[in-house]
Amino acid sequence: MKAVVVHAAKDLRLEERDMPKPAAGQVLIRMEAGGICGSDLHYFNHGGIGTIQLKQPMILGHEVSGRIESLGEGVSGLEAGQRVAVSPSRPCHACKYCHEGAPNHCLDMRFYGSAMPFPHIQGAFQQWLVADPDQCAVADGLTAGEAAMAEPLSVVLHAAKMAGALTGKRVLVTGCGPIGLLAVLVARASGAGEIVATDITDLPLDMARQMGADTVHNVTETPDALEQYGADKGHFDVLFECTGVAPVVASTIPALRPRATMVQLGLGGDMTLPVQAMTAKEITLKGSFRFHAEFFEAVHMMRHGRLDVKPLISATLPLDQMLDAFELASDRTKALKVHLDFA
């Protein structure tokens, strides 16, 4: 089979690998679609993410879907031919955080396509994949592309839980990449009273309007756009911060109301925050990292028509055009979410 393997920055190769075979209790999946994530782009463009750097070749990818080809002995509840979204989250179920109900903080997490541990955890951008049954969310009725969007949607559903009830709230979303756009979508579906979104290019802002944002601001054209929300100690109840860029974060604090909740999703490296201003406003800062149970919730919501992610998929390219796909995905003026077709 073929697999997408990164060796170093700008060194991405389509390599032949042995086709895996399912053992007892496992599932063999013929992969269909894979979404190129921001972390995949970091490995492709920079050879790593901050201090996490490649030390060996690694198969990329963790936003994937496919069809079940066969079931290992003892597997029940799934059938050959079913389309499934495959969760990349594989906690150990034995450490203290798993036992505390926080498997996204597992001490022995095996998350697809991660150079955080060594040896690295190989990813899912390959034509065939062996997975555990509890990773497979039945996605019949969805397209392969929609099913592959379950992973980023899960990230946002987890963040929304961290934010608390959104009904009637004034919500600010900074950074309208796929995660920010999904934050707009989820906030609107959750009954937010007002949604304002910011970004530095027009394509994602146009999509933010389509996803449900009431107002959008291009902060390259109008760097002081958020100043209008600073009267009477601020305007917004909730911030979904999806850039991870320190100056962006700092610019939001005057626009947040006292006792607002700031949910940090963007991972752009360490940053300095205006802690004294945040303290004076009693702002609650919550980090949001990955997900677990939300994966099956995401598939359920898509299958029942509660969330439509299709508009975010800008392009789907065949596997032999993977370099073009990664270059396109790197250009925020041309694409939002780019998928690979493994068929």
Give the topology, please.
Blueprint: E1 2-8, E2 11-16, E3 27-35, H1 38-46, E4 48-49, E5 52-53, E6 58-59, E7 63-71, E8 83-86, H2 96-99, E9 128-131, E10 136-138, H3 144-148, H4 150-163, E11 170-174, H5 178-189, E12 194-199, H6 202-211, E13 215-218, E14 236-241, H7 246-252, E15 256-264, H8 275-280, E16 284-287, H9 294-303, E17 313-318, H10 322-329, E18 337-341
**Class of secondary structure makeup:** alpha/beta
CATH superfamily of the largest domain: Medium-chain alcohol dehydrogenases, catalytic domain
What is the count of distinct domains?
2
Strand content: 25-35%
How do the helices and strands follow one another from N- to C-terminus? EEEHEEEEEHEEHHEHEHEEHEHEHEHE
CATH class of the largest domain: Alpha Beta
Counting H and I runs of at least 4 residues, what is the number of helices?
10
The CATH topology of the largest domain turns out to be Quinone Oxidoreductase, Chain A, domain 1
Name the CATH architecture of the largest domain: Alpha-Beta Complex
Shape: globular
Q: How would you characterize the largest beta sheet?
A: 7 strands, mixed
Number of strands: 18
**Which quaternary structure do these chains form?**
single chain
Distance between the termini: 11 Å
Overall mean pLDDT stands at: 96
Share of helix, binned: 10-25%
The low-confidence runs, each spanning 5 or more residues with pLDDT under 50, are none
Radius of gyration computed on alpha carbons:
20 Å
